[in-house]
Write a structure and sequence with these properties.
Elements: H1 3-9, H2 12-16, H3 24-33, E1 41-45, H4 52-58, E2 64-68, H5 72-81, E3 88-91, E4 105-108, H6 113-126, E5 132-136, E6 147-149, E7 152-156, H7 165-170
Parallel strand pairs: 1-2, 1-4, 2-3, 4-5
Antiparallel strand pairs: 5-7, 6-7
Length: about 170
């Protein structure tokens, strides 16, 4: 099947990342791929009501698991999902304004070019070397992924960039 045909068969909400819940088995596979460990501080930017925060905190025993969600109703539901988990928290804030300097692993799944551009600038400035940014479907802009297993991509700081899309694909 050609990629165009496959993508056209998916709901727009999946392609945009809007209100999409990842199944728990996919979250676990993603975390194993990212080599999530107990020393990590995990952030899910735009977490919605996914179980990523709970699974990272309880099953992968990360030091801290933080979900950032701008929509208040979803942040409230997400908080209820992690009630009583000491190393998990949900913040109802805009991802472009929240502090991320302590993150060692971030899950970032946005398609808005303006938000992506703003966040890449923040990742470059605020994240420590060695921090990993996990994306779905493709790496960010022209970043060259450190690891790739479609549909998962990891880019590790310091980030490397391709000159063009062809170079990025070949990397």
């Amino acid at each position: 099947m050609k990629i165009e045909h496959f993508l056209s068969s998916l709901p727009q909400s999946v392609l945009k990342g809007d209100d999409v819940s990842l199944p728990d088995n996919v979250i676990r596979k993603l975390f194993r791929f990212a080599r999530l460990r107990s020393t990590d501080v995990f952030y899910h930017l735009g977490c919605g009501t996914n179980n990523t925060i709970r699974i990272a905190a309880q099953e992968f025993e990360v030091k801290k698991s933080v979900g950032i969600e701008i929509r208040k109703s979803l942040a409230t539901k997400a908080r209820n999902n992690i009630a009583g988990i000491a190393n998990a928290q949900i913040t109802n804030q805009d991802i472009r304004k929240v502090r991320i300097t302590d993150a060692s692993v971030l899950l970032f799944w946005f398609t808005n070019p303006r938000i992506i551009g703003q966040m890449i600038k923040r990742f470059e400035i605020e994240l420590s070397d060695g921090a990993r940014v996990i994306t779905l479907w493709s790496p960010l802009e022209l970043m060259v992924p450190t690891r790739a297993e479609f549909p998962f991509f990891i880019c590790k700081k310091p980030f490397n960039y391709a000159e063009n899309l062809s170079e990025q694909i070949k990397a």
